[in-house]
């Protein structure tokens, strides 16, 4: 509501070219709020307003625009002005936005960057998607180990303007090998010992990641050690850059979205839902539906195998949905819990025995509860009270089967090097449906073969 109230005034400023007022507008409030006030402006109008801000402030506000508006500005405005904007962007942000642009425009812009910045962009774009190198920034506070506290503070003052964050100061040798880390707080507190060297002050046991490590494992490490940033090194332990906490949040959200889509039996979308073409969306959903369709056909074949028994004992049909839903739902619960726990690093492959024990216990608890309810329903619908026992025994077995399938299949997929989320709830449910029918008819078959014997003994 507030941003629409500012639109007439902003357009009036532009029409009358009130330079000082537009410069003040760009600096008066938080950059994110300023970007919100500019939402109603066209990309061209927004860019004209930004021209009255200092380069770093312009870049900061620009970062809060929607991706569509950013791309329209980058592709539609003067190339020289855009190159100046890209120069002051953080390395990881500019690589991300350049990846979304037409390659011809990217080549034009790269040719306008300084040699150092151009080389940096090209190097970062070479890292595989979803690797630590693809999300790191090279703007990092690096200090040589021989510096004293006073010298380090002076050097930090020279570097500060170019840095994205100075939570941690990384200590390197002359060849850029990572030797240790000093927190900014620790350095400031040591100002009373100005001649103390960083080598004496630093912590040598540094939590770090390789540039080719998967971004999801990086996010888990950052969360485990509660870090604000983590250094990225190459195979020779040379310092390449850092991944900051805001980038880790982006990674976590991206990975979580992919897992949710896979759990729902949809291949992860590369774009947002509304931006994904219908044919692409249909393919990503349809390929899984086809797989699940054939899984459902197996359930039909399983039922066809027991057609004679069903024809003879029609009342069994009434409980088929109950049996397969109990197994599918319990399996879906287990797979969701295991997949989410693995994503957070709470469960490792070596924990499979503990998982089996817990899921068997959980299957017994839940299966007994649901079986008791099913037995009560069976007493009303079964032709004889003894046959009602088929329902609770079946449900108990099916729920145990569901919890074990839902928990072990994601672990099995991880063991094969695949994403556990591929073992989605519908996929687990499809497997458990088939097993449920087999268990149900097998239990019923045992009862109907034993019942005449029991009657004969009683007689």
Label this structure with key terms.
459 residues; mainly alpha; MgtE N-terminal fold; CBS-domain; Tetracycline Repressor, domain 2; 3 domains; 22 helices; 6% strand; disordered C terminus
Q: Any overview of this molecule?
A:
- This protein is mainly alpha-helical and 459 residues long.
- The protein is built from 22 helices and six strands.
- The protein folds into three domains: 126 residues, Alpha Horseshoe (MgtE N-terminal fold), CATH 1.25.60.10; 104 residues, CBS-domain; 181 residues, Tetracycline Repressor, domain 2, CATH 1.10.357.
- The protein has a three-stranded mixed beta sheet with strand order 1-2-3. A three-stranded mixed beta sheet has the order 4-5-6.
- Helix 8 crosses helix 10 and helix 17 packs parallel to helix 22.
- The protein is elongated, with a radius of gyration of 31 Å.
- The relative contact order is 0.06.
- The C terminus is likely disordered.
Offer a quick outline of the entry.
Helices cover 66% and strands 6% of the residues. The chain has helices at residues 2-16, 19-28, 31-37, 43-50, 55-62, 67-76, 79-88, 91-99, 103-112, 115-125, 132-135, 149-159, 184-189, 198-201, 215-225, 245-263, 278-305, 307-312, 320-343, 352-381, 390-415, 425-458; strands at residues 142-144, 168-172, 178-183, 209-210, 229-233, 239-244. Strand 4 (209-210), helix 15 (215-225) and strand 5 (229-233) form a beta-alpha-beta unit.
């Amino acid at each position: 509501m507030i941003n629409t109230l500012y639109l007439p005034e902003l357009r009036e400023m532009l029409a009358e070219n009130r330079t000082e007022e537009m410069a003040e507008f760009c600096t008066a409030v938080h950059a994110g709020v300023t970007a919100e006030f500019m939402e109603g402006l066209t990309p061209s109008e927004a860019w004209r307003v930004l021209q009255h801000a200092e380069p770093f402030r312009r870049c900061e506000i620009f970062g809060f625009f929607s991706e569509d508006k950013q791309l329209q500005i980058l592709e539609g405005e003067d190339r020289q002005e855009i190159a100046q904007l890209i120069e002051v962007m953080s390395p990881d942000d500019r690589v991300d936005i350049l990846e979304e642009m037409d390659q011809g425009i990217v080549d034009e812009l790269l040719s306008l960057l300084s040699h150092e910045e151009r080389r940096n962009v090209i190097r970062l774009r070479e890292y595989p998607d979803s690797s630590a190198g693809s999300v790191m920034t090279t703007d990092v506070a690096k200090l040589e180990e021989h510096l004293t506290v006073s010298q380090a503070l002076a050097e930090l003052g020279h570097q500060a303007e170019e840095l994205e964050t100075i939570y941690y100061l990384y200590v390197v040798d002359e060849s850029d090998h990572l030797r240790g880390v000093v927190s900014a707080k620790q350095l400031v507190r040591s100002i009373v010992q100005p001649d103390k060297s960083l080598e004496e002050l630093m912590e040598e046991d540094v939590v770090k990641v390789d540039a080719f490590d998967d971004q999801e494992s990086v996010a888990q490490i950052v969360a485990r050690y509660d870090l604000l940033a983590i250094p990225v090194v190459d195979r020779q332990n040379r310092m390449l850059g850092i991944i900051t906490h805001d980038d880790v949040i982006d990674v976590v959200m991206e990975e979580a979205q992919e897992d949710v889509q896979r759990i729902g039996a949809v291949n992860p979308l590369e774009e947002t839902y509304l931006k994904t073409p219908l044919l692409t969306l249909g393919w990503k959903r349809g390929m899984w539906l086809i797989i699940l369709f054939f899984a459902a056909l197996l359930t039909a074949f399983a039922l066809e195998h027991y057609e004679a028994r069903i024809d003879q004992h029609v009342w069994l049909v009434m409980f088929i949905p109950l049996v397969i839903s109990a197994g599918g739902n319990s399996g879906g619960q287990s797979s969701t819990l295991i997949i989410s726990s693995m994503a957070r690093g709470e469960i490792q492959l070596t924990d499979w025995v503990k998982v089996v024990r817990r899921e068997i216990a959980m299957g017994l608890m839940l299966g007994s509860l649901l079986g008791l309810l099913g037995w009560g329903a069976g007493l009303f619908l079964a032709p004889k009270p003894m046959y009602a026992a088929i329902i609770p025994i079946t449900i108990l077995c099916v729920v145990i089967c569901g919890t074990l399938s839902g928990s072990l299949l994601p672990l099995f997929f991880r063991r094969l090097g695949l994403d556990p989320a591929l073992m989605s709830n519908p996929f687990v449910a499809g497997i458990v449906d088939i097993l449920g029918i087999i268990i149900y008819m097998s239990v019923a078959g045992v009862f109907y073969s034993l019942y005449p014997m029991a009657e004969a003994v009683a007689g």
